[in-house]
Design goal:
With 140 residues, this protein is mostly helical. The protein contains four helices and no strands. The longest helix is centred in the N-terminal third of the chain and has 30 residues, at 3-32. The two termini are 23 Å apart.
Length: 140
C-alpha cells in the first residue's frame, strides 16, 4: 500500500470520526434549541463529513490500481481530499456561529472563486484517479 492510499484511508477515517463528533454537536444543539433543530450548517457539516468519508474510501480503493507515479497519485487524491476537509471546516464554522441559513445568499470570494477551485480540484482529481483505474482494469 503506497502513501497516497494510506493518506486517503486516513482521511476517510478522520472524516468518519468528524461526522460522529459533529453528530454529538448536532444532538446537543437540537436538545438546547426551543425549536429542537440544529443550525443548518451543523446539519450539513455532519452529513458532508460522512459522505466525504466514503468518497475518500472510494478514492483509496481506486488508487490501488493506479498506473501513475506516487507524486501524481498524491496530487490527484490530495486535492479533492483537501477540498473535502476545507468544506467540512467551513460548514462547521458557519454552524458553530449559526450565522447563516444559506451561505450562497451573498456573492463573495467563497461563493465564487473558492467554488470554482473546488469544482475543478475535486472533479479534476477524481478524473485522474478514475482514469487510472479504468486504464489498468478495463482497457488493457
Amino acid at each position: 500500500m503506497n502513501l497516497a492510499v494510506k493518506l486517503s484511508l486516513a482521511a476517510s477515517g478522520a472524516f468518519l470520526l468528524a461526522g460522529m463528533l459533529l453528530g454529538v454537536v448536532k444532538y446537543r444543539r437540537i436538545m438546547a434549541s426551543e425549536a429542537h433543530r440544529a443550525p443548518v450548517y451543523i446539519d450539513i457539516a455532519h452529513r458532508a463529513a460522512f459522505l466525504y468519508s466514503f468518497a475518500a474510501l472510494v478514492i483509496a480503493r481506486l488508487l490501488e490500481f493506479s498506473p501513475y507515479s506516487l507524486k501524481v497519485q498524491l496530487a490527484a487524491a490530495g486535492v479533492p481530499i483537501l477540498f473535502f476537509a476545507m468544506t467540512i471546516v467551513g460548514y462547521s464554522t458557519h454552524g458553530f456561529r449559526d450565522d447563516t441559513e444559506n451561505m450562497f445568499a451573498e456573492r463573495n470570494f467563497v461563493t465564487t472563486w473558492f467554488m470554482y477551485a473546488l469544482i475543478a480540484g475535486e472533479i479534476g482529481g477524481m478524473i485522474v484517479v478514475l482514469w487510472g483505474f479504468v486504464s489498468t482494469q478495463l482497457i488493457k
